[in-house]
Amino acid sequence: MIEIRPMDQTHVAQIAELEKTCFSDPWSEASIASELSNPLSCWLVAVEGERLAGYIGSQTVMGESDMMNVAVHPDFRRQGVAQALILALVDALKARGSHWLMLEVRHSNAPARALYEKLGFAEVGRRKNYYSKPREDALILRKEWEI
Question: Domain 2-102 belongs to what topology?
């Protein structure tokens, strides 16, 4: 059974490996570890036993949150892990007094865009050439809520 809980030091190496699997420009292990001591950060992991199924991370400043990354291990995709992580993050951010969550997503990432739309995110802008490897625009999405 998959459990969602706050990231701790034991998850950092697995997250760094999953970054390499999922992203063309992955975060380093040191960058991920630094989020543990960042009071603006909220990172959650989905685990099955000791195995990392996925993770999500955000930073919040003055009630405005930005999703840094979300990733699901290929073995756990299409099982609702990303949705569970996003919903758990929203709950955690609400508890911290955040008013909304913003994110960037590749224009071509149709599955992610469909999930975000299903969860109530709306397109609020576009960042030209935001991504590299390959170069691509990012759509800026936002989900707002009452606290």
Answer: Aminopeptidase (3.40.630)
* Catalytic-labelled residue, pool 19, 35, 55, 116: 116
Extents of the domains making up the chain: 2-102
CB atoms within 10 A of CB 126: 12
Active site residue 104: yes
pTM of the entire predicted model = 0.94
Which entry of 19, 35, 55, 104 is annotated as an active-site residue? 104
Q: How many CA atoms lie within 13 A of 142 on its CB side?
A: 10
pLDDT in tens, the chain (147 residues): 999 999 999 999 999 999 999 998 899 999 999 999 999 999 999 999 989 999 999 999 999 999 999 999 999 999 999 999 999 999 999 999 999 999 999 999 999 999 999 999 999 999 999 888 889 999 999 999 986
